[in-house]
Amino acid sequence: MAELEKQASRIEDLEQAGARVEQFKALIPFKEQLKATRGTGNDSEIYNLLRGRRSKLVSSVITAELAQRPSAEGFLTSQIEQEQDPDMQVTALQLLGHLRSPLARLAALKFLAHEHDRHREVALFVLGWVGEEEDIKVLNRHMLEETSQLLRITAASALRQIFFRNPALKDALLESLRAGFMNEKDDEVLKWIIVMIESVATKKLGLREDKEDPDLVHGDLEKAREKTMQYFASGK
Prior knowledge:
The protein has helices spanning 2-16, 20-36, 43-48, 56-67, 72-82, 86-98, 102-111, 117-130, 135-145, 149-165, 170-183, 187-201, 221-234; strands at residues 208-209, 217-218. The protein is mainly α.
């Protein structure tokens, strides 16, 4: 594993130096060596390669490899319980969520009681990936009560993710988003809640997400607010 750590650090050095071509060339043998460790009982060592990484690209390659391993679900479940590093705790939960493991739901529900915003943020979007009907109320509570803009937006987004997986829950999800819409006083959060309502209702309300920048929303908020009010008032 020392050789893999050495390669990972070299790739990160190349990225920091702006040597993008050399970096991508170095990624090829790195990926192959990671793959060659499958089935050798080295999940823990591969997981530990994620510690202290300076490059999101290198981290993404390692996490993609872990996700391919049949043993990943059990390993990550136990790791969430044992891990002491806060950053690695959320990494383990996010990975388990990527696997769409039912075990990720239980872990996410526990993380929602965590004092750190980052833990609750990851728990919220993981619930969007794997949550069930009863979790709509949980997400609604965080959308209404979190003090952080980001966490309220994340909770609303998770409601949309549940809709994408289970459109039959449309009415319950819209009712939850309606409560967020009526309660929200922050314009930045409100525009995102309206975007989520548009997606679930399959209704154009005047706002749209930027196709290239996931943090941007286009459109006139006041007009969208009025259209959303009309939509809920009409019952359609």
